[in-house]
C-alpha cells in the first residue's frame, strides 16, 4: 500500500497532516457510567476541558458524579458556587495608555504615512515641522512609535490571557477561546492595533461557548478580523475576495464545498462592511445592492444572510464539529465519525457549549487518554498549573517560550491558524520543550526582559549607540555593513545597500526613536520568577523513597505510563545525585536533585502527550 | 561550470559514467551511496502566492499594462533582462545571476483545476499530487528513493514546523529553526538518556515522538557544530531566508542532498497595497539567493547546488481596486545555481483569453519541473516519485 489518501476538499489537508483516519467505525457517544468514574477520568477531563488540575482539585472532581464534574467545566465553577466572578484574576486588562486619537486610522505603511503628511501637512496627529532639518521626522517617529507600542502592548495582552488560563475558575472559557483564536486566526503584525486584538479575544472568551451563529457574525464584524482579511477595502466597485474566501474555506465549510463563483458573489454581499476605530459599520454607499447567486440561490443577500446560508449546510456543522473534536479529543476521525458529530452539533442547535457537554460525557472521550500531543500553550500552562503556580512566571518570558515552541499568542502564522497534532513536534522543538522546563526549574540569571530591551532589533541598538558616541544622524544611521566596510567580499546585497535618501526624514532614526517612545510608555511585565519548593511537597506527601518520588511525579504530570525500566532508571538517577536512597536524610539538600529529576522527566517525549 | 561544458570537455561515454549519478537512467543506482560530490537541491517556498507577473515582468506585452494600469511596473523602472521581460526593481540579485548565466525562468507553471486556497494548493505542490494529495511529500519520496533504508540527515527543513514536502516514509526529516537553540540546555546537554529496556506497546503518537527524539539526539550536535564553524562569505541581505543555515550544513560536509526553506507567514499574500511591499519581499529573496549561490561558489560547492523557487499559486493578472492582486493560478518558477541551464523554459502564457474567472491558463505542469530536478539533477527516476510520466524540460543542459 502506498499510503496515498484520496479525499475530497479540505479533508485532504486534514488527512495529510494527521495520521490516517482509522477504519470507519462509529464513535461511542453514549455517556460514561457513573460507576466507572475515577481519578484518571477526572484528570483527563481537566486536561482537555481545561489546562489540567492540581492534586487537590483532582480529588474533588473524582468524588463528584461525572455529570456534575463535566458541568463544572462547561458552565464554570462560579455557576455552582453562585459567584459572579468567573476568574480569580477578575480584573480587566490594564491598559498602559499608549493610544491617542491621532493614530486612527493608521496608514498602511511608512511610505503611505509620509506621503499623507506631505499632502496634508500633518499625519498621525503630528504636524509637519515649519522648518529646520528633516521636517517629517516627528511624523515618522510617531509611525514607528505606534508599531512598537502596539506590539509590546499585545505581549501584555498575551500575558493577561495566560494568567486567566492558569487561574480562572472557568478554564474551558479560556480553552475554547484558544481554539477560536486558532480557528479565526488574526495576527497583530498585520492588524497593528493591540486594542483590536484584545477586543477579538474578549469576543472569543465571552461568546466561544455559545451559539455558533452569533459568534460567526461577531467575527465577521470584528475589527481585527476585518482588517486582517482586508475587508475594510471591500467595496461595491471592487469586491475583495479574501474575507469571503476564508470565511467559507477555513471558518465554516472547507475547500471543495463551494465554487469560485460563490466566493465572488459572497464578496459582493460583504461589500461596505468596514471599521471605524473599534466599531463595525456598514458603508451603505459601498454596499452592493444587486442580486447575488450564492450556493444555488439568488437574492439581494447581505453578509448576515450569506452567513445563514452557510450555516444551513450540513457540511458546515460537520466541518466545525470535526475540528472541535480534533482539538478536544484526538487527531484521528473517520468520515463516519464526522457525520455523527455534525449531527450532534445540529441536535444542539449549533451551541458549542452543549456540544462539548455531550462530548465530555461520552465514552469515546474517555478512550482518548494520552492520544493528544499538547500544544505549546497547553504544555506551558498545564505544567504551571500542575506545579501549583497561581500566576504565570515573568522569568522565563511566557511569549518568548511559547514563541520558540511555535505558538505565540496573537501571532498565529497564517489565517489558517496553527496546525495541531504532530506538526507541533520537530527534533529541535522537542529539545525546546525540555529547555522550557529547565528555564522554570533553574531561572536564567542572565535574563533580559524582551519588553525592555528588544533583542530582535540589534541594528536599532547600534544606531542608538553611535548617536550616543556623538556621531551625526546621517553617519549613525548608515547601515552597519556600509559603515564597517563590506568585509565579506563580493557584491553587497541590494536590501543592505539602500541608503535613506529622503532628506525630509530618516527612517532608521525614526525606528530608534519609536522604540524609545514606546519603552517609555508601555508598562513593564512583572518579572517574578516561579517560586518552586519541591522538598516541601515531598515532605507533605510523605514520600520516603526515590521510587515513590518518581511514581508521584509520574501520576501528577503524565497521561501515559513511563516504562518500568525508565522509572527505575530515574530513581537510580536520584539516588546517584543524592548519594543515598534515604530521602529523609537528604532533605536539607534535596531541592536541586529533585529539580533535575523533574527537568529530566518533563523533557521526555512521553510528557508531550496529554 | 555548466554540466554541458563538462560533458563537452569529457566527450566520451566513459566520462559520463565517471560523472556519476546525475546523468539519467543509466547510472541511477549510483546515487544510493551519497558522497562528497553528490548533487544538492535547495527548495525555497515563497509562501502566500507570489505575483509572478510583477516578478518577471513582460513589459513588451501591452496586455500587461492594460490589466494592470496602476500596479504595472513601467519599463524604465525594470531591471534589464531581455527584449520582452524585465526584472522587478527589487531583483538586483537575481539579475546578477541571470547575467552570470546561473538563472532559469520557467513560465506558466500550474496544474489542471487549480485550487485558489493557499493551504490546499500548498499541499498539492508539497505532495506533487494536485486535487488528490498524498501521505508523503515529494521531497520525502525522493529521499526514500535515494536511500532505501532509514538514515539520519537525509532531509533538512529549516523552519518552525515541518513542511509536508519533506515528509518521508523512511526518514525523519531534520527540522530546526535556530541552530544555536538546537540543543538541550544545561546539565542535560551531556547526560545520557534513560532508555526503556524494551519498547512498550505505544500509541502512534508516542512512537512518533520517540522517533523524533532519537533523530534530535543524533543530529543536533552536528548541526550546531556546522553553524558555529561557518562564517557567511557573501552578503545575504536583510532577511537571509535561512539560506546561511543551509550553507553551513553544506560547508560542514553533511551528507544531506535535500533542503527545504520557506518565506515565513504567507508573506507574499499581497491583496492590498502590493507594489512597495512586493518589491521589498522580492529583494529579500533575491539578495538571499544571490548571496547563497555566491557563497557556494566561494567554498567550491557551486557545481553541486541548485536552488528552486516556487509559490503555491500566482496571482490574477488583473489588479484589484486596492492596488493589490487576488489569488490566481499559473506562475513562474525559478532555478538558480551554476549547474542550471540559463534561459527561459516553458511557453509564456497569453494574457488574453483568460479562463476560470480571469486567470492565466497554465502551460507547464509544475511536475515537469519537479521531474527535471528529480531525474536530471538528483538522478532519481522521476516517474517512481511522481507516480506518472512528465516531460522534462532540459533545465540542466
Question: Secondary-structure element sequence of chain B?
Answer: HHEEHEEHEHHEEHHEHEEEEHH
Query: What structural class do helix, strand and pairing data of chain A support?
Result: mainly alpha
What helical percentage do the residues of chain B reach?
25-40%
| Poorly predicted residue ranges of chain B | 1-34
- The total strand number of chain B stands at 12
Topology:
The complex is a heterodimer of chains A (610) and B (397).
Chain A lengths: L8 H9 L21 H11 L5 H8 L3 H10 L1 H4 L29 H11 L1 E2 L2 E2 L9 H31 L3 H13 L4 H4 L2 H14 L4 H9 L2 H6 L12 H12 L7 H10 L3 E4 L2 E4 L9 E3 L2 E3 L3 H9 L2 H15 L6 H13 L4 H10 L1 H4 L9 H11 L11 H7 L22 H15 L16 H11 L4 H4 L3 H4 L10 H4 L9 H15 L12 H7 L5 H12 L6 H15 L12 H12 L8
Helix pairs in contact in A: 2-3, 2-4, 4-18, 6-7, 7-10, 7-20, 7-27, 8-10, 10-11, 11-15, 13-14, 16-17, 22-31, 23-27, 29-30, 29-31, 30-31
Chain B lengths: L2 H8 L2 H7 L20 E6 L10 E2 L4 H6 L11 E2 L5 E2 L4 H8 L3 E8 L7 H10 L10 H9 L8 E4 L15 E3 L27 H26 L13 H9 L6 E5 L11 H25 L6 E6 L20 E6 L6 E3 L18 E2 H12 L4 H5 L11
Parallel strand pairs in B: 1-8, 1-9, 5-11, 5-12, 6-7, 6-8
Antiparallel strand pairs in B: 2-4, 3-4, 5-10, 9-10
Description:
The complex is a heterodimer of chains A (610) and B (397). By secondary structure, chain A is mainly alpha-helical. Chain A is built from 31 helices and 6 strands. The model of chain A is unreliable at 1-23 (pLDDT under 50). With 397 residues, chain B is of the alpha/beta class. Helix content of chain B is 31%, strand content 12%. Chain B has 11 helices and 12 strands. Chain B is globular and about 70 Å long. The chains are: A mainly alpha (610), B alpha/beta (397). Chains A and B meet through helix 1, helix 13, helix 14, helix 22 and helix 26 of A and helix 4, helix 5, strand 7, helix 7 and helix 9 of B.
Amino acid at each position: 500500500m502506498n499510503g496515498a489518501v484520496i479525499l475530497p476538499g479540505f479533508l485532504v489537508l486534514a488527512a495529510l497532516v494527521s495520521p490516517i483516519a482509522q477504519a470507519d467505525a462509529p464513535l461511542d457517544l453514549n455517556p460514561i457510567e457513573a460507576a466507572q468514574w475515577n481519578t484518571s477520568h477526572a484528570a483527563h477531563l481537566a486536561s482537555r476541558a481545561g489546562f489540567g488540575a492540581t492534586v487537590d482539585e483532582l480529588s474533588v472532581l473524582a468524588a463528584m458524579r461525572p455529570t456534575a464534574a463535566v458541568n463544572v467545566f462547561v458552565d464554570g465553577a462560579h455557576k455552582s458556587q453562585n459567584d459572579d466572578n468567573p476568574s480569580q484574576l477578575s480584573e480587566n486588562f490594564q491598559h498602559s495608555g499608549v493610544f491617542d486619537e491621532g493614530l486612527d486610522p493608521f496608514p498602511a505603511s511608512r511610505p503611505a504615512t509620509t506621503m499623507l503628511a506631505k499632502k496634508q501637512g500633518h499625519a498621525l496627529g503630528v504636524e509637519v515641522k515649519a522648518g529646520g532639518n528633516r521636517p517629517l521626522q516627528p511624523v515618522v517617529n510617531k509611525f514607528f512609535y505606534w508599531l512598537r507600542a502596539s506590539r509590546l502592548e499585545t505581549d501584555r495582552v498575551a500575558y493577561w490571557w495566560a494568567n486567566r488560563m492558569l487561574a480562572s475558575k472557568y478554564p474551558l472559557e479560556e480553552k475554547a477561546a484558544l481554539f477560536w483564536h486558532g480557528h479565526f486566526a488574526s495576527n497583530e503584525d498585520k492588524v497593528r492595533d493591540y486594542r483590536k486584538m484584545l477586543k477579538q479575544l474578549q469576543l472569543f472568551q465571552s461568546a466561544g461557548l455559545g451559539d455558533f451563529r452569533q459568534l460567526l457574525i461577531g467575527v465577521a464584524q470584528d475589527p481585527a478580523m476585518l482588517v486582517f482579511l482586508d475587508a475594510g477595502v471591500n467595496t461595491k466597485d471592487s469586491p475583495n475576495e479574501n474575507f469571503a474566501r476564508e470565511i467559507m474555506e477555513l471558518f465554516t465549510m472547507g475547500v471543495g464545498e463551494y465554487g469560485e463563483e460563490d466566493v465572488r458573489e459572497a464578496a459582493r454581499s460583504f461589500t461596505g462592511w468596514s471599521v471605524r476605530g473599534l466599531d463595525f459599520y456598514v458603508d451603505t454607499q459601498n454596499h452592493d445592492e444587486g442580486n447575488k447567486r450564492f450556493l444555488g440561490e439568488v437574492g439581494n443577500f447581505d453578509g448576515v444572510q450569506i452567513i445563514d446560508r452557510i450555516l444551513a449546510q450540513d457540511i458546515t456543522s460537520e466541518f466545525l464539529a470535526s475540528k472541535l473534536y480534533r482539538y478536544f479529543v484526538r487527531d484521528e476521525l473517520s468520515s463516519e465519525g464526522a457525520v455523527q458529530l455534525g449531527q450532534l452539533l445540529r441536535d444542539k442547535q449549533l451551541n458549542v457549549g452543549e456540544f462539548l457537554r455531550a462530548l465530555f460525557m461520552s465514552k469515546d472521550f474517555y478512550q482518548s487518554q494520552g492520544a493528544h500531543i499538547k500544544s505549546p500553550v497547553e504544555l506551558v500552562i498545564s505544567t504551571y498549573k500542575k506545579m501549583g503556580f497561581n500566576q504565570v512566571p515573568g522569568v522565563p518570558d511566557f511569549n518568548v517560550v511559547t514563541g520558540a515552541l511555535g505558538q505565540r499568542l496573537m501571532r498565529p502564522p497564517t489565517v489558517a491558524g496553527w496546525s495541531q497534532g504532530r506538526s507541533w513536534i520537530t527534533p529541535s522543538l522537542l529539545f525546546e520543550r525540555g529547555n522550557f522546563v529547565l528555564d522554570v526549574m533553574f531561572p536564567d540569571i542572565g535574563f533580559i526582559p524582551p519588553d525592555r530591551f528588544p533583542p530582535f532589533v540589534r541594528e536599532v541598538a547600534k544606531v542608538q549607540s553611535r548617536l550616543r558616541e556623538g556621531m551625526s544622524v546621517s553617519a549613525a544611521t548608515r547601515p552597519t555593513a556600509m559603515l564597517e566596510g563590506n568585509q565579506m567580499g563580493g557584491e553587497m546585497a541590494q536590501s543592505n545597500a539602500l541608503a535613506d535618501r529622503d532628506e525630509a526624514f530618516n527612517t532608521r532614526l525614526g525606528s530608534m526613536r519609536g522604540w524609545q517612545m514606546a519603552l517609555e510608555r508601555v508598562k513593564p511585565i512583572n518579572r517574578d520568577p516561579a517560586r518552586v519548593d519541591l522538598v516541601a511537597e515531598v515532605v507533605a506527601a510523605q514520600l520516603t523513597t526515590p521510587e515513590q518520588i518518581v511514581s508521584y511525579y509520574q501520576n501528577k504530570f503524565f497521561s501515559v505510563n513511563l516504562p518500568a525500566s525508565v522509572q527505575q532508571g530515574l530513581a537510580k538517577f536520584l539516588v546517584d545525585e543524592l548519594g543515598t536512597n534515604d530521602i529523609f536524610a537528604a532533605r536539607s539538600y534535596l531541592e536541586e536533585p529533585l529539580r533535575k529529576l523533574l527537568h529530566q522527566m518533563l523533557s521526555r517525549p512521553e510528557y508531550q502527550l496529554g | 561550470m555548466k554540466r554541458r561544458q563538462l560533458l563537452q570537455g569529457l566527450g566520451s561515454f566513459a566520462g559520463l559514467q565517471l560523472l556519476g549519478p546525475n546523468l539519467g537512467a543509466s547510472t541511477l543506482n549510483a546515487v544510493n551511496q551519497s558522497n562528497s560530490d553528490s548533487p544538492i537541491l535547495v527548495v525555497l517556498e515563497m509562501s502566500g502566492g507570489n505575483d509572478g507577473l510583477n516578478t518577471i515582468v513582460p513589459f513588451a506585452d501591452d496586455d500587461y499594462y492594460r490589466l494592470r494600469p496602476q500596479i504595472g511596473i513601467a519599463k524604465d523602472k525594470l531591471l534589464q533582462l531581455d527584449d520582452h521581460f524585465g526584472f522587478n526593481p527589487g531583483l538586483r540579485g537575481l539579475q546578477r545571476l541571470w547575467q552570470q548565466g546561473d538563472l532559469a525562468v520557467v513560465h506558466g507553471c500550474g496544474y489542471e483545476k487549480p485550487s485558489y486556497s493557499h493551504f490546499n494548493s500548498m499541499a498539492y505542490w508539497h505532495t506533487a499530487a494536485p486535487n488528490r494529495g498524498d501521505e508523503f511529500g515529494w521531497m520525502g519520496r525522493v529521499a526514500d528513493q535515494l536511500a532505501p533504508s532509514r538514515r539520519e540527515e537525509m532531509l533538512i527543513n529549516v523552519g518552525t514546523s515541518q513542511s509536508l514536502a519533506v515528509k518521508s516514509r523512511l526518514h525523519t526529516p531534520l527540522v530546526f529553526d535556530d541552530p544555536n537553540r538546537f540543543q538541550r540546555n544545561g546539565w542535560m546537554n551531556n547526560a545520557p538518556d534513560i532508555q526503556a529496556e524494551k519498547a512498550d506497546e505505544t500509541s502512534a503518537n508516542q512512537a512518533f515522538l520517540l522517533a523524533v527524539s532519537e533523530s534530535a539526539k543524533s543530529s543536533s550536535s552536528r548541526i550546531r557544530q556546522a553553524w558555529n564553524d561557518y562564517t557567511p562569505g557573501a552578503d545575504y541581505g536583510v532577511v537571509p531566508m535561512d539560506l546561511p543555515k543551509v550553507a553551513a550544513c553544506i560547508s560542514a560536509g553533511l551528507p544531506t542532498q535535500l533542503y527545504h526553506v520557506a518565506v515565513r507567514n504567507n508573506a507574499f499574500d499581497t491583496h492590498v497595497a502590493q507594489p512597495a511591499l512586493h518589491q521589498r519581499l522580492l529583494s529579500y529573496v533575491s539578495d538571499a539567493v544571490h548571496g547563497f549561490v555566491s557563497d557556494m561558489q566561494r567554498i567550491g560547492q557551486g557545481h553541486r547546488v541548485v536552488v528552486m523557487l516556487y509559490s503555491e499559486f500566482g496571482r490574477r493578472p488583473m489588479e484589484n481596486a486596492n492596488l493589490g492582486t487576488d489569488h490566481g493560478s499559473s506562475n513562474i518558477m525559478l532555478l538558480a545555481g551554476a549547474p542550471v541551464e540559463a534561459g527561459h523554459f516553458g511557453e509564456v502564457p497569453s494574457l488574453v483569453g483568460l479562463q476560470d474567472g480571469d486567470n492565466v491558463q497554465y502551460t507547464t505542469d509544475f511536475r515537469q519541473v519537479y521531474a527535471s530536478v528529480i531525474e536530471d539533477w538528483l538522478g532519481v527516476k522521476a516517474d517512481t516519485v511522481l507516480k506518472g510520466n512528465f516531460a522534462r524540460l532540459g533545465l540542466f543542459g
